[in-house]
């Protein structure tokens, strides 16, 4: 990684990391809102919620994919990928697979707008057309200026195809209403031990935000011209330093300051860290011990360029959780902590949970 934003691979590093950071932050915000409003996501409505998240991530990936590995030759000889602003101008010029993808990628969104969110046909088509237009805007502006010229064809026809795909999805959602269970979640008290997938997702959000933010910042700092700087900064050591600093903030500083002792990613999923055998927040020394056990091997493997080996760390930690009734991971057993939910540790109910109060009996009339 190095160079400037108009050459070399700095643009690709910045574009990839920026897109990953936006996806991670958007996912965290969506999951936090769902858990705040509905508590534990379970059953078929929970799976539909996961489908909503997967659809959003897929659309974000489609908007930027495929990212060029560099900018050499990207703008030659005609200044990048052409644009087709006139309707029906590109349908004959583009391959059928492109048209099928442009329409098919909006089908899940149209389906969910009807099946999950109960939107009418006009609203669903309008939303899908707006999303397709946003995708084309990202392509036309070369990922909001991250690249010197467009690397994918932007066409008004793709917006029309996206609207058509949204309409097809809405019709599928109308049929799904008749054969599938209720999709809207009902609020549930979040008092049970959290599932392993939820706990793993919290760690994944933390790592994704730290790594993508460090990569994007390093690419930007090494690319921007600085007056008086004679030697260019080395991108990889700078990225590793920024990642270590962000990891320290996420894994140590934030949990020590929060009542639930949660990192930002785990807080988005309303998780908390309690002491073993005690329904109270874990002590600060135990929080530090657990952070070291989790983050030192994960961070070391990422810095060493061995990201897939972090799966071995996750498997090691989860090896005890799958056989214990309290679902305590190996690092929790060593540090004397337990992962629980915020509601179980600190109390509280979901915002959408129905609350019934006993109606006050009228006082008897005085004789």
TrEMBL record:
Coiled coil: which residue ranges? Answer: none
- Could you tell me which residue ranges the VanZ-like domain spans? 105-172
Question: What organism is recorded for this protein?
Answer: Streptomonospora mangrovi
Q: Could you tell me the membrane topology recorded for this protein?
A: Multi-pass membrane protein
A GO cellular component term found in this entry reads:
membrane
Protein name per its UniProtKB record: VanZ family protein
Q: One matching Pfam family, short form? A: RDD
Q: Which InterPro entries match?
A: RDD, VanZ-like
- Give the UniProt subcellular location, in the record's own words: Membrane
Q: Which residues form the RDD domain?
A: 194-336
| Chief place of localization | membrane
- Write out the entry's keywords from A to Z: Membrane, Transmembrane, Transmembrane helix
User: Which residues are listed as membrane-spanning?
Assistant: 12-31, 43-65, 93-113, 120-147, 159-180, 200-221, 241-257, 287-309
């Amino acid at each position: 990684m190095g160079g400037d934003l108009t050459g070399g691979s700095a643009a690709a590093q910045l574009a990839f990391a920026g897109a990953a950071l936006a996806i991670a932050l958007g996912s965290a915000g969506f999951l936090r809102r769902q858990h705040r409003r509905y508590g534990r996501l379970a059953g078929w409505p929970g799976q539909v919620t996961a489908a909503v998240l997967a659809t959003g991530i897929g659309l974000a990936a489609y908007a930027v994919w495929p990212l060029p590995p560099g900018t050499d030759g990207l703008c030659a000889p005609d200044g990048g990928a052409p644009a087709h602003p006139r309707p029906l101008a590109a349908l004959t010029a583009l391959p059928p697979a492109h048209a099928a993808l442009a329409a098919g990628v909006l089908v899940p969104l149209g389906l969910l707008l009807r099946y999950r969110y109960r939107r009418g046909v006009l609203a669903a088509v309008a939303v899908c057309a707006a999303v397709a237009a946003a995708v084309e805007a990202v392509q036309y502006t070369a990922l909001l200026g991250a690249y010197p010229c467009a690397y994918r064809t932007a066409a008004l026809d793709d917006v029309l195809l996206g609207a058509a795909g949204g309409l097809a999805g809405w019709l599928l959602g109308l049929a799904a209403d008749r054969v599938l269970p209720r999709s809207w979640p009902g609020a549930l008290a979040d008092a049970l031990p959290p599932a392993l997938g939820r706990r793993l997702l919290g760690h994944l959000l933390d790592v994704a935000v730290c790594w993508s933010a460090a990569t994007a910042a390093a690419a930007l700092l090494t690319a921007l011209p600085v007056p008086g700087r004679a030697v260019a900064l080395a991108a990889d050591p700078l990225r590793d330093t920024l990642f270590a600093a962000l990891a320290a903030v996420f894994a140590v500083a934030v949990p020590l300051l929060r009542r639930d002792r949660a990192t930002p990613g785990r807080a988005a999923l309303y998780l908390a860290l309690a002491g073993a055998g005690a329904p109270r927040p874990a002590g600060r020394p135990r929080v530090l011990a657990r952070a070291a056990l989790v983050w030192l091997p994960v961070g070391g493997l990422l810095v060493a360029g061995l990201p897939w080996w972090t799966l071995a760390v996750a498997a090691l930690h989860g090896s005890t959780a799958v056989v214990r009734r309290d679902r305590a991971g190996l690092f929790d057993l060593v540090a004397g902590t337990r992962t629980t939910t915020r509601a179980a540790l600190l109390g509280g109910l979901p915002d959408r949970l129905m609350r019934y109060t006993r109606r006050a009996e009228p006082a008897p009339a005085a004789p």
